[in-house]
Amino acid sequence: MSEPLTETSPRSRRWLVALPLIGFAVLAALFLLRLYGGDPSKIPSALIGRPAPQTALPALQGLVRDGAQVPGLDPATFKGKVSVVNVWASWCVPCHDEAPLLTELGKDKRLQLVGINYKDSPDNARRFLGRYGNPFAAAGADKNGRAAIEWGVYGVPETFVVGRDGRIAFKLVGPINAENFASALMPAIEKALGGS
């Protein structure tokens, strides 16, 4: 004797059909939330609290400030001074947007502004700084991008605050704008000036 076949009700069949669609919708929502949720400029950096990379870079060829060649990047530059390190390039569109704010920041005598020129030609970099003004006390040429890797750079522009102790205190991913200048960068600089 065989057992009679039981049929599933139309109601339970609808649930079975809808289950994969519901699962897909939940996964798509999680994916979109992770993709678009949060501020990309707040990407955590493993270097916060660690010593600034000991990367020496040659001077940006032909870059002069106050009649003297602007020095390259020397790790000793960071000892005893609060430094703002900006990774930039002339071909970087957001770098053009942030240049006036960096020029203003470069006038603050309490700190030094250091530039890392990323994969750029010296002529284009000098033209860029000639257009906006050179805010950098030191500017190293990172021709192959190795220094940017050591600094943990995701893409240009990025800005770091290095305390008097030579440790990275803050990292800003993306261009400096009026909002993050006031809400994030300046408070980090003030903290480094007062606390290191």
Descriptive report:
It is a single chain. With about 200 residues, the protein is of the alpha/beta class. The chain contains five helices and seven strands. It has helices spanning about 10-35, 95-105, 120-130, 145-150, 180-195, and strands at about 65, 70, 85-90, 110-120, 140, 160, 170-175. It has a five-stranded mixed β-sheet. The chain has a two-stranded antiparallel ribbon with strand order 1-2. The longest helix is centred in the N-terminal third of the chain and has 27 residues, at about 10-35. The mean pLDDT is about 90.
Low-confidence stretches: none
Distance between the termini: 88 Å
The Rg value, from CA coordinates, equals 25 Å
What does the largest sheet look like?
Answer: 5 strands, mixed
- How many DSSP helices? 5
State the share of residues found in helices, binned by percent. 25-40%
Concise synopsis of the structure shown:
The protein is an alpha/beta fold and 196 residues long.
How is the secondary structure organized here?
Layout lengths: L9 H27 L27 E2 L2 E2 L13 E6 L4 H13 L6 E7 L3 H11 L5 E5 L3 H5 L7 E5 L5 E6 L4 H18 L1
Parallel strand pairs: 3-4, 4-5
Antiparallel strand pairs: 1-2, 3-6, 6-7
Give short descriptive properties of this protein.
single chain, alpha/beta, 196 residues, five-stranded mixed β-sheet
